Amino acid sequence: MTNVGIAGIGFMGMIHYLSYQKIRAVKVRAICEKDTKRLAGDWRTIKGNFGPRGTKMDLTGVGRYADLHDLLADPNLDLIDICLPPSLHAEVTIAALRAGKHVFCEKPIALNSADARRMLGAAKKAGKMLMIGHVLPFFPEYSFVYRTIVSGKYGSLLGGHFKRIISDPLWLPDFYNPAVCGGPMIDLHVHDAHFIRVVFGMPTAVHTVGTMRGDVAERFTTQFLFEDSGLFATASSGVIAQQGRSFTHGCEVYLEQATLLFDAANIGKDWVVGYPLTVLLNDGRVFRPKLLSADPCDAFISEIKEVLSAIRTATPSALLAGELACDAIVLCEKQTESLRRGRAVKV
Question: Which of 287, 314, 324, 297 is nearest to 139 (CA)?
C-alpha cells in the first residue's frame, strides 16, 4: 500500500484525490490546504474546464493539515502529491524530498530550469523519485500516438506538427507573470514541448517567431532542429484575443508507413472534433483507432498508475521522470530566447 498526502486542494488536487479512489493499493492518508472550508471537506467552490464540480466530501480517516510542514512530517506518508501553484513547486518539492518522501508534482516542474535542476539534485541526494504530472501522453489520442511511435509498427518517426492555443484567460490575473504562472510558454506550450522531447529526443536548436507580452511569449510558432537533419517538428501555441474558441489542440505525426491526425477544440459551448484520431496508410487505407476512454479524468488515473508503478518497481518513468520535465522547461526557455533575439538558438 502506498500512502499519499496531497498538498493543495484546488481543481487539480480534487481530480487527483478522486483518481486515487479508483486505484487499488494506494490510499490518500492526508491533505494539506489553507482554505478552512476545503480542509473540512466542503469542495463545492471547486470547478474546472472538464470533469465533475466539487461537492461535499467525507474525509473521515484522512489527516488534515493547514501547514505544509505538518504534512511533510507525517511518518505515515510515502508520496507527496503537489497540486500547488507553479511558483511553489520547487521549494515544496525540495522540502518533501528532504523529508524522505517520493514526490509527484503537477506540471510545470518549475518556472525556470535552474529551480528544476535544484529539484532533480534534491531527489538524487534523497534517493527518492521525482515525477512530474505531464498528463498529455495519457490522453487517449496522444497515448495512441506515443505507443504507435515507440512500437515501430509503421516504421521510423519522420516529423510532426503540434498546436495548443487558448483564448485570453481573462479570469487569471497572474497568467502572464513570469514569477507566478509563467505565461503561455510555461503554462500551456510546455505540454507539447514535453511530448516532443519524449518522442523525438532533445532538439539541438530551436527557431521561434511570434509576439511577446511583457517578459513572456504570447503567441508563437517554433521549428525544432535535431542532430538528424531529416527529422523535423514544429509547434504553434499561445493566446488569441477571440473568446469564441477557448481551447484547441491537435497534432499531425509522420511515420514511414503512416500519418496520424488529430484536431479538436472548444468552440463556444461545444467540444468540436475536426479530425478524430485518424491513421492514413501508405496503401490508401484510412481508419480511426478505437480509443480506450473519452473521459478526460481517466487520463489522470492512468498517469497516477504510472507514478505508482515507478515507485513500486524503483524504475524511472519513461513519461513522467523529472529529467524529461526539466528538459521541457529548457526548451521553453530557449524558445523564448529565440523569439526575443529573432534567430535560432542552440539548446
Answer: 297
